[in-house]
Structures are given as structure tokens and as C-alpha cells.
Amino acid sequence: MPIPLPSLDDHDFDDLVGEARALLPVLLPEWTDHNPGDPGIVLVELLAWLTEMQLYQVDQLPQSHILNFLRLLGGPQWSPPDTGGLDAAVRQSVAALHERHRAATADDYEYLVRTTWPEQPGAAGLPRVRRVRCVAGRNLAGTDPAAAAPAHVSVVVLPEPGGTADTHPLPTGALTTALREFLDPRRILTVRHHVVGPEYVDLAVSADLALYEDTVPADALGDARNRLREFYDPFTGGDTRDGWSFGQSAYLSEVYAVLEQSPLADYIENVRLTRTGTDGDAGVDGIALDAHQLVRLTRVDLTGYDSYGRTHPSTWELPT
């Protein structure tokens, strides 16, 4: 609801004439003819009419004052738009007030990198940032990324892949340097900011698939493998298919859910989800990830069982 503008003076023509007539017996008692035809009353009404116009202008803001105020909001470099007049200038200034120019919260850092950075001249010729995550209170560029670091902010960026084989890209040094310089004048003075790439946690999945009688084993195993790769993809994975979320844990139940969607497999069993380099399976809570980490599926071992009891093993590994 807009704030009502105050009226500096709400006297109108009738109020002014009435007030003047009320003063006549006190100031000029000999003036007894107060009819509209009296020359004095005509002058009183004329002055009341002129005064009413002056009072109306008191409550108005001239265009020059509004433009000066907009220039005060926009800074010395501000100029009104070429078309649209004063209304367009007001809309432009109000919209600019909602733009974030400083980074005070983690969401501000993510917004600036995602929305403002692509429009900067320094972004030309560098890989496009597809996803970004800000981790407050951590120095992910330091020797101990897990340690708490007050007054530090780490911006994790996932760039556009460099090719079809670059399924899990990392930002180049030029990109991280340019982003750090872009954020430097926008940060709070006492904050130390860092720009890094994500840390990938390598996972391996194995499962047994009972195939339908008319299913081609190679097709069923290939479909299951592709579903797993898509689910853990940093750009198109996750439940919402817009990329595996930073810090999202991996659960064994998710593997069952993904494989059971295959129309070529009757049921799934003996599913294992392990972190590459370790011997332990995923526990009840799954494989936990830190806020700056993403999963990377590096190996898939699937075994299909047809209706005759024959086994059809298949192994896929992420190319290095």
C-alpha cells in the first residue's frame, strides 16, 4: 500500500473567500455590502482564486526536482532514458534500487556471479559459469579446507564443459582470477574471499538386474548405466534434473529408485554404493558430502540375469 502524500495546505476557494468575509466586520466595520456584485468582494474572490492556484502548486513537484532526486539515487553517472519521459526514468531508478551491487550474504555472492558477472567485459572469452555455491566461514583455497575460517568466504564455481569428454569440469586459473577481481570491490571490507572449483567425490555403483524374458541384455544394461550417469551428472542430475546439488549426500535408496525406473528390468537387487578408494559401502546416512563437493560416478558394475539364469556382466569406468 503506497504511503499517502501529505497536503501542505488544503484551503480551497470557498475557504479563502469565507475566511476573508469573516474578517471584514472586524477590520473594516464600515464595509457593509458583502454581496457578490460589490467591487471589493470581486477583488476578494479574485485574490482567493489566485491564492488557490498558488496553494495547488505548493503541493506539486516540478520535473526538475524529480530528475535531481533520481540523479541523487543513481549517482553522478546517471542519465534519464532517451524515451519514455519522466515515468520511464522513475521506473528505471526504482528497478535499479532492487539490483544487488554489494555482496553481504552468501546469496549475494551467488547472485552477482550468476547474474551480474556475465554482463561484465571481463567475462568475455572466459568459460561461462553454469553453477555457483558460496560457502561462508571457510577458506577452501587454503591448506585445510575443512577448518573454520571466520571472515572468509569461498565461492565455488562450476564452469561450462570444455567438450563432450569434459563431464566434470574445473574452472581455469584465468576464470577464478577474473571472478576474484570482479568480487573484490563488491565485498565487505573485512571479508577475505576466494574463488575455487568444486571438489569431486568419486563413487562406484554395482547392482544385479533381473531382466524380462524378451529383453536384450546389452540394451537393459546400457539403459541402466545411462540412467545412473544422468542422475549423478553435475549439470542434469539430481531429483530435479538441474544438476546434482552442492553438498548433497548420496544414498543407496536413490540407486534403487533410479534403476527401478528402467522399463527393461523386472527388479533390482544386491545394490552397492561405495566411495572410490574405500572398502566400506554407503551407510544408513549415505555418503556424506561437504558443502563444496559434488559426486562423480567413476565406475558402474552391472550384472543382468535373463530368464534362463544366464549372467551378463557389464563394467563401465569414467575415462581419465
Describe, in plain words, how this protein is organized in 3D.
Helix content is 33%, strand content 22%. 22% of the residues are buried. The strands form two sheets. A four-stranded mixed sheet has the order 5-4-6-7, covered by helices on one side. Strand 6 and strand 7 (311-317) form a beta hairpin. It is built from eight helices and seven strands. Helix 1 (13-27) packs across helix 2 and helix 3 runs parallel beside helix 4. The longest helix has 20 residues, at 39-58.
Please state the overall shape, judged from the principal axes of the Cα atoms: elongated
- Extract low-pLDDT stretches: none
Global Rg: 36 Å
Distance between the termini: 60 Å
Count of helical stretches: 8
Order of helices and strands: HHHHHEEHEEHHEEE
Features:
single chain; 320 residues; alpha/beta; four-stranded mixed β-sheet; three-stranded mixed β-sheet; 8 helices
Quick structural gist:
Helices cover 33% and strands 22% of the residues. It is an alpha/beta fold and 320 residues long.
Write the layout of secondary structure elements.
Blueprint: H1 13-27, H2 39-58, H3 63-74, H4 85-97, H5 106-116, E1 129-138, E2 148-159, H6 173-183, E3 192-196, E4 199-211, H7 217-231, H8 252-259, E5 265-275, E6 293-305, E7 311-317
Parallel strand pairs: 2-3, 4-6
Antiparallel strand pairs: 1-2, 4-5, 6-7
Helix pairs in contact: 1-2, 3-4
